[in-house]
Amino acid sequence: MENQIQMLKQFCFSNGYCISRVFSDIESGISFEKRKNFFKMLDDVIAGKVERVIISYKDRLSRVGFELFFKKYNCEIIVMSEVGCEKLDSEEIFEEIEVYFSVIL
To answer: 81: pLDDT confidence band, cut at 50, 70 and 90?
Structure first.
């Protein structure tokens, strides 16, 4: 988890993004019931306090409805692994089940 957060911070610094808050959970990307920090972040998005969310991999937020949570509230999602790299969605399906959820705002 710490390595992922450090990589995200470095990505932000390299791209000129200011970090105001870090949210992280270690839970399944399929179930939301134990993802307390995800819901704290979502509350901030809904309240209009978040302009941009930066994640390491697409499935770190959710395995389904990836952008559904954020489009409505004009919150940009940047996926670090997809910057300068194209990855097929079919490849992501077979990646690890456990999600290390880290978000940089």
So the answer is: confident
Instruction: State the CATH number of the domain containing residue 31.
Output: 3.40.50.1390
Closest alpha carbon to 53 in 36, 68, 41, 64: 41
DSSP for residue 72 = T
Q: How far apart are CA 77 and CA 54, in angstroms?
A: 6
Residue with tokens 């077979």: 94
> If we measure between CA atoms, which residue out of 59, 40, 44, 47 comes closest to residue 100?
59
Name the domain count of the chain.
1
Global confidence as pTM: 0.69
Question: Residue 6's domain spans which residues?
Answer: 1-102
Record the tokens describing residue 91, joined without a space.
């490849």
